[in-house]
Amino acid sequence: MEPAASDTSRERAARAADRSRIADIEAQILELERTISSLKEEKNSLRDRLATYTYPVLTLPGEIVSEIFVHFLPDFPQYPPPIGLLSPYLLCQIYREWRHMAFSTPVLWSVISLSFRKAGRVPQKLRYLQTSIERSPLKLGTSYILDQEYLAELNHVIINHFHRMEYLDLSWPGSEFHTDTELSLPENCLFSTPTYFIRSIATLSIGVDHARRAFGNYGAFFELHQVARWRKDGIGF
């Protein structure tokens, strides 16, 4: 019987040690919670103090801020990307008021460049194009519209704002064109539209990869003599 009594004594001692350790842990937790609470109070106090500080840049008139935003963009005819360091959307991610100013500054959205190389992202880019077009008179560049099913939608988006465009730059891969000697634009291309849309364009550029063809009679068809200036990229005239 003595061994059994000894085991019971050791078990009681172990349970007592566990209870003591739990009490120590609870005391430490309580102390840490007090420390965390104190740190949170200090953090809130510092935030409140910072909130009362007015940064000098935030005192600038909105017109000056908008002008600074405009100089942020690359010089035309270079295009700002839809995302990244030179995108106007970067200005919208810094400060809530700046976001409002950026969306209210039409020049920031006056040059749009999109590449349609990845068919899976075409719907997203068409939405971006529609939103950007609605914000400003614009210069527009597009490249590599590979999927015919999206040409009609692109046509619809652009034609609705064609009269406001100053510069239009389009590029297709050579495979989109027929193999005869005259240049044939893809079916449902936006140029299968009334020619008075073209007359508002100051500069028109059409580029075709891996193809240099005579333009044939399309100049007369499009009344491209109405265009003030051509930039001939990738096409022989």
Describe the structure.
It is built from 6 helices and 5 strands, in the order αααβαβαββαβ. By secondary structure, it is of the alpha/beta class. It folds into 2 domains: about 1-55; about 110-230. A 5-stranded parallel sheet has the order 1-2-3-4-5, covered by helices on one side. Helix 5 (about 150-160) links the parallel strand 2 and strand 3 (about 165-175). The longest helix is centred in the first third of the chain and has 50 residues, at about 1-50. The protein is elongated and about 95 Å long.
Brief descriptors of the model:
237 residues; alpha/beta; 2 domains; five-stranded parallel β-sheet; 5 strands; elongated; F-box domain-containing protein; coiled coil
Lay out the secondary structure.
Blueprint: H1 2-51, H2 62-72, H3 96-103, E1 111-115, H4 122-135, E2 138-143, H5 151-159, E3 165-173, E4 203-209, H6 218-222, E5 229-230
Parallel strand pairs: 1-2, 2-3, 3-4, 4-5
Coiled coil: 15-49
Protein name: F-box domain-containing protein
Organism: Mycena albidolilacea
Q: Can you summarize this structure?
A:
The protein has 6 helices and 5 strands; from the N terminus they run αααβαβαββαβ.
